[in-house]
TrEMBL record:
Its cofactor is FAD. Residues 1-19 form the signal peptide. Gene3D superfamilies: D-Amino Acid Oxidase, subunit A, domain 2, NAD(P)-binding Rossmann-like Domain. This is FAD dependent oxidoreductase domain-containing protein. PANTHER family: D-AMINO ACID OXIDASE (PTHR11530), D-ASPARTATE OXIDASE (PTHR11530:SF11). InterPro entries: DAO (IPR023209), FAD-dep_OxRdtase (IPR006076). The keyword Signal applies.
Length: 367
């Protein structure tokens, strides 16, 4: 008899990268991804992976070696992929400029990127910049990258199912779920983002909360470099106020953003969208269409409004203490948790997936 199936719960960037690494490690394993949301779905605030910018811009504290390792391993995997296949899976390599108001130093992790340079803040496009660096990084078009991950899972023999899971024991007892994969699973990877709060023990559930993010997406294919301004301290995570301009290989540019702890409002607020446009023009004047660059402030704003494609809102799956990548035993099944990545799920996905699969295989995650 073949070994029992393995279930990956969740089809965001975390679940899909975990499934890919699992199938690569054990090509004979029968892997089933079970999720409410699948990559081809319409944008949904509760499906964070589809709303993300997404750029690779670590905010790992200098002393947070675990997060730094996840982020830089992920950069290595993505950069290698971009060198091999170009922009076909949604990746774009670019010069990223990071500006600070009120700080005089940068995160050490940026020095690990290619082409790292400290720039003269006097050359910043906006006022009050006290420190500025640039380096090579990547952006990701989520819809393209999730679709490419879905194809990789399928080509490795994994299967995707749309289903809601009410509890971890239900994966072994609910007839409707068992009908998807035949027998109780030997292992479950919990990659359910914010949904994990309904599946884990109460103390763990209490540690999870949404950090709302609102963005404006514009059509501006002439912008091919990334710009970010940080005002106030990150505080080891995502503190302060951050403005970003994230071009994608598709010609869309994501302007952001907000970080609203505990806010479940799923729709865009008009005043917030207006503020985002103002901040984006401040840090990247080239976001304004070329024909309107010499216009007055009102003319530039109107020209920028004319290229808005959509507003979007998403809930980052934030967890007090950072992501949970850990192994446990629930009932008869081996459970590996890989959730709670806050605003860093894209830039840490491959590093976390490799740790999660290593934990399942019996290894110990490295610091
Ligand atoms: C505005 C915004 C900008 C961001 N920008 C960046 C960025 O630039 N860089 C970066 O690294 N990160 C960014 N992030 C964060 C990033 O999007 C998340 O960290 C990441 O998407 C989390 O992925 P995930 O797979 O854990 O969760 P999700 O993408 O939310 O996926 C969760 C999956 O679990 C399934 N699920 C949950 N509960 C159940 C259940 N009970 N039964 C069945 N299925 C279930 C869902 O259906 C879904 O398939 C941003 C987020 C937002 C909102």
């Amino acid at each position: 008899m073949p070994p029992p199936p393995i279930v990956v719960l969740g089809a965001g960037v975390i679940g899909l990268t975990t499934a890919v690494r699992l199938l690569e490690a054990r090509p004979d394993a029968e892997v089933h991804i079970v999720a409410d949301h699948l990559p081809s779905d319409a944008l949904d605030a509760h499906y964070a992976s589809t709303i993300a910018g997404a750029h690779h811009l670590s905010f790992a504290d200098d002393k947070d070696l675990r997060q730094r390792r996840w982020d830089m391993r992920t950069f290595e995997v993505l950069y290698d992929e971009w060198r091999r296949v170009g922009e076909s899976t949604g990746l774009m390599a670019l010069t990223q400029t990071e500006m600070w108001e009120g700080a005089s130093s940068h995160l050490e992790v940026y020095e690990q990127h290619p082409d790292f340079r400290v720039l003269d803040p006097a050359d910043a496009p906006c006022a009050n910049i006290s420190h500025m660096v640039s380096f090579t990084s990547l952006t990701i078009a989520p819809a393209l990258y999730l679709a490419s991950l879905e194809r990789r899972v399928a080509s490795l023999g994994g299967r995707l199912h749309r289903a809601h899971v009410t509890s971890l024991p239900a994966l072994s007892s609910d007839p409707a779920l068992l009908a998807l994969y035949g027998r109780p699973p030997s292992a479950v990877f919990v990659c359910a983002g914010l949904g994990a709060r309904h599946l884990v023990e109460p103390a763990e559930a209490a540690a999870l909360s949404p950090t709302r993010g609102q963005v404006v997406v514009v059509a501006a294919p002439w912008v091919r470099s990334g710009h970010t301004r940080q005002v106030g301290a990150l505080g080891g995570s995502e503190g302060g106020t951050r403005t970003y301009v994230i071009p994608r290989c598709t010609g869309e540019v994501v302007l952001g953003g907000t970080m609203e702890a505990g806010d479940w409002a799923p729709y865009a607020r008009e005043a917030t969208a207006d503020d985002i446009l103002t901040r984006a023009m401040d840090i990247c004047p080239a976001i304004v269409p070329p024909h309107a660059r010499d216009a007055g402030a009102d003319g530039r704003r109107e020209a920028l409004r004319a290229i808005v494609l959509r507003d979007a809102v998403g809930f980052r799956p934030s967890r007090a203490g950072g992501a949970r990548v850990a192994r446990a035993r629930v009932g008869g099944a081996s459970v590996v948790y890989n959730y709670g990545h806050g605003g860093a799920g894209w830039q840490s996905c491959w590093g976390c997936a490799e740790d999660a699969v290593g934990l399942w295989a019996g290894g110990v995650a490295r610091l």
